[in-house]
Amino acid sequence: MPFQSLGLMPELVRALSDKGYTEPTAIQSQAIPAILNGEDVLGGAQTGTGKTAAFTLPILQRLAEHPNPKAKGPRVLILVPTRELAVQVHASIREYGKHIRLRTAVMYGGASMNPQMMALGKGLDILVATPGRLIDHLERGTAQLHRVETLILDEADRMLDMGFLPAIKKILNQVPKQRQTLLFSATFDAPIKQLALQFMRNPIEVQVSSQNTVAHTVNHIAHPVDPGKKRELLMHILSERYQEQILVFVKTKHLCNRIAEQITKDGIPALAIHGNKSQGQRLKALSDFKAGNVRVLCATDVAARGLDIPLLPLVINFDMPMVAEDYVHRIGRTGRAGANGDAVSLVATDEGGLLRAVNRLLKQDIVLESKPGFEPTTTMRMDLTPPRGKPSGHQAPRRKPAQPGHLKSHGMASQKPKSSSPGGSPRGRQRSPQR
């Protein structure tokens, strides 16, 4: 089933085609028509199932079909739990909306307030924000939410885990009651259902299961290393196994290019594949890799969606993924069809929390094994999870809960996303469209 069958406009289908996506995933097939129809949607989907595109594509179309260039906005507000996800979601919006004239911005803590205030002052169609930073702007009077037409809570379960519920409720008090609300979460446990029933109008419930498992034939190893010695360690591993096909994951397009260039200079043919490459360039790089013309393929998460490389013996995580589910997606490239495969992660001493998140997801501890000559000089921090509790001291205003609505079941599905579809930034997952 092509994307056109979901009712998407040609400009969006063209952007999807530019990225090599031809068919929607399960969550996209179910959520996009409902969102286009103006329904509230409660979507259950893990990173990697294409959920970012599931809400990004229809909101882009709704804005394009009803432009309001004078609106100070934002007209669409997307709340996410982390800076990395905010950047990833905003990047997806820019990619899928590149043939549509819309004003977008992203804001998160730890960045300068001034550029964010300037963007808010000029007016926006779409704002992607973390709750704490948005509260800062609301308290300063630099953000106004009275024109919000669609509110989206992405990874609501993670926001609740991080203690953002008071901030979310405060933000919800600032947006119009007559709006479309979309809530996406990995789980539909009691707190999520309670939130949905308080602030949504008869939401359609869409649930897609995720395969958070890897083949039993994959051997997982993590090498702790100082950040400044990662490249040396990578070259050391490649020098030992250069006769094999090796897929290396990195977190940014720029680093992807630099690593591929360095590997090639050191005598091992390598190519890069990422979102800035055209579809033709990606297909050529993948073809050369499969044919053995190059031994190493460096990839970002977004570009790696849909890669089909049979009997790949080794996957290396140069950077740990920001979202644990992306580890499963990366490692799924090896250990296929009963073959053995190795998953090697180069874990900097400040990435311990990311490794721990992967351990929790896999329900096993990945073996930590120091490479002689590359032992870290500092102790690895194994828990970087933000503490539970109230974010930034913001208090939620008291408010009577709204009358509960009703959840409308909509085609409950459990199927694996098709590889030709946008997966999740990077996170996402970019990332379907990303993550």
Which terms would index this structure?
single chain, 8-stranded parallel beta sheet, alpha/beta, disordered C terminus, 7-stranded parallel beta sheet, 435 residues
Describe this structure in words.
By secondary structure, this protein is of the alpha/beta class. The strands form 2 sheets. It has an 8-stranded parallel sheet, sandwiched between helices. Strands 10-11-9-12-13-8-14 form a 7-stranded parallel sheet, with helices on both faces. The longest helix is centred in the first third of the chain and has 15 residues, at 51-65. It contains 15 helices and 15 strands. It has helices at 10-18, 26-36, 51-65, 83-96, 113-122, 131-140, 156-161, 165-172, 190-199, 230-241, 253-265, 279-291, 301-304, 324-331, 352-362; strands at 41-44, 76-79, 104-107, 126-129, 150-153, 180-185, 204-207, 218-225, 246-249, 270-273, 296-299, 314-317, 341-348, 367-368, 408-409.
